[in-house]
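new request in #modeling-help
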Amino acid sequence: MRLRRHWFSGLIALAVIVFLWAPLVIVAINSVNSDTLLVSWKGFTTHWYSQAAHNGTVQSGVKQTMTIALGSTAISLVLAVTGALWWRRASPRARRTFDGLTYLRIMLPEVVFAVALFLLFSKIQFPLGTTAVVIGHVVWNSAYATLIIQARVATLDPALEDAASDLGANPWRVFRRVTLPGLLPGIVAAGLLAFTFSFDDVVTSYFLTGAGTAPLPVVLLSMIRFRITPEINAIGMLVMLFTVSMFAIGFIAVTQMGRGARKALALPEVRQ
Amino acid sequence: MRYAGRALRSVLALPTLAWMVLFFLVPLGLIVVYSFATISLVTYDISYGWTVSNYRQIHDPLYFDTLTRSIFLSLTATIGCLLLGFPLAYFISRQPARWQRLLLVLVIVPFWSSFIVRTYAMVNLIDNGGPLEDVLHTLHVWSGPLNILYRPKGIALGIVYSYLPLMVLPIYVSLERIDYALIDAAGDLGANSRRTFRRVTLPLAMPGVAVGCIIVGIPALGEYVIPEILGGGKTLMLGNVITDQFLSVGDYPFGSAIAVALMAVMAAALVLARVVQRRAPV
């Protein structure tokens, strides 16, 4: 009965999920396909993987992407946590303005923002390169991180912090012992998301890299423009395995931490 | 003590605020100023002023066609995402909790792989003689070559593919929140399932639909990578024109004017969405 009632949406759902996975299946197949032109299956090979691993531009691209992603994630988390803590006790009007700016940073077409920052940097003669890209990524990454951490902040009970400060803890200690443990799952989730967004970014990186070492997605874009390169599929598979395992680890960490934090916060109550 | 606490709290806003002003609002202001300036393409000297010549240049059919094509492609892709995303979100929201989680993972995981590699894979998928053509031939929905790669149709399909989860997730969230009692009540009061869907489920899902349309439609307007790869390097959308003006031609004022025009279209779309939302029942 249930199935019959939803057969129409079920059929579309199935088709859409197949559609979403089809390109990935193609990437997976072509990453081990020995046909150089990728028009048909010509037997199994690991050649593309070893070619990708020995490609100097790809190697330096991966290193560059990692540096940028780690840097922009760290700064974004600091901005998001401080911003969200301020937001919690701000006036409704200040909150609305703050939220508006957060959404604007997420929605504005990335090209517009990237050229604007490119223009600013060339105007003040700030050198393009790693630092410039990190600054750019933080602008939108901190917005995503803020949304997630705000959601977490909203679930915190202010009474716990008030209690801590009534018991004589200074603000820093309250933050470190009560607020931060409560926020930790949100911070991990926001950090993972920010890291992957930064890791995958093309447009902002493309504008702000300049003549220096290009991050991986920019390297891939120029490889694609240049010619058919089966190597790209191997790189794509590796990137996917990397992100999926990172998310899996992050997911486990968040669930564990959720339990840990609850325990940590419940403990004083038990002692009393 | 209280006062110190309040001052401390304002300090918390500083890092985000400073970053937003310095690296977001100031640059956006700068492109507005630049869009009214002129540049000598021989010496690359900028002379500031309040000329609208850059905006006039957008009326040049070469660019105006790109502007209308961008709006059209973004609209088509948004509608495409809605047509595919709504049934998917609806189906997911009607499953038992365990299945819901599994289905959501199936929707999201493809997006953990590299965006650029996925878009590149679309080239193989939709090319003439590719798997999509094979499937359509087998189903007898299409005969002859597909001819969508390196054309606007291919770009629209690429955008639908890349932005679909952004449509599915907000719609799913609003559908999932619907109280079953409301649907039962509609049934008890004699509404058939189609009427219940139209009068109860659909209106309650509208906030999710609105959010989905905004977060798909607006970023899609300025899409750069998808038209670059699936459009075959032709300047098919505004994102490509802007990039060209900045990184190849060097006409910063004209590039800025297009970027500002893009922001204006975005603002208009947001206002429109607001009006529609206010008019909507519920």
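bot summary: The first strand of chain B starts at residue 38 and ends at 39.
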